Amino acid sequence: MIADEQLFEGTHNAASVYPREIVRRALELHAAALILAHNHPSGVAEPSQADRHITDKIANALSLVDVRVLDHLVVGDGDVVSFAERGWLLSS
Predict the structure, then answer these.
(1) pTM of the prediction?
(2) Given this model, what pLDDT does residue 91 score?
């Protein structure tokens, strides 16, 4: 692992996530792949449609610079949902 960083912070019900900032940071670190993670303050780890949409946008943006998204983990109270385990990540 090269780094473990928090790039964005949200409120109890929303967060602004900018794919360009994730791409910029991946390039700065010379990363070949990354794992995304965020928590749901509600305690429910089930990903929303917005979570799935932003993950696809991030993966598409990163694919343009040959960086893979290995997983996106959503954390709730005592539960974690893995996009990779569910087969939700785009193929690279």
Answers:
(1) 0.91
(2) 61
